[in-house]
Amino acid sequence: MQSRRDVQRQRSRISGKKLVVRTLMFLLVVILVTWGTFALATQPMRSAQHQAIRLAKRYAGLKTTNGFYTYNRDHTYYTVSGENRQGQAVLVIVPQKGGKLRVVKQSNGLTKQEAIAKVRSENKVKKVLRAAPGVFNDHVVWEVSYRNANGSLCYDLLNFTSGKYVQRINNL
Q1: Does residue 106 form part of some domain?
Q2: Which residues contact 21 (CB under 8 A, 6 or more apart)?
Q3: What are 8-32's pLDDT values in tens digits?
Q4: What's the CATH code of the domain at 125?
Q5: Where does the Cell wall elongation regulator TseB-like domain start and stop, copy by copy (predicted)?
């Protein structure tokens, strides 16, 4: 026969196991809800990326891809970087709302690193947030967004071909 003390220990072990199982189930639910929310939130961008890559391969002859950018100014553009069938590094700029694709050889303009370096050399940049190619006033540009030394948000547009400043928005 079990003593009263043994019965209490056994009940305590069972309630401890229930607590562990309930805690693990709660954590699993939290993880699944978080993951689901993230997946739903990023789905439109992933869909746009897949569509832009598909269009770039189909209509611009892109063979491989190595980058994807989003540009939002007057209009939204998605840019896919990679190599075309001739082995040339290109940027394929796809307008969000339809229209003509633009294909530019990367050798004909600034690279992402060169655009960032130019902005860094001429401004007091604390942190570069991103750089993305797009179209502004019918010209291909690099948009570099950054925080300046004061912590203010800044946007610089550089002409893709010449590297000249097209527009500067500082201290937002």
Answers
A1: no
A2: none
A3: 666 666 666 777 778 888 888 888 8
A4: 3.10.450.40
A5: 51-95
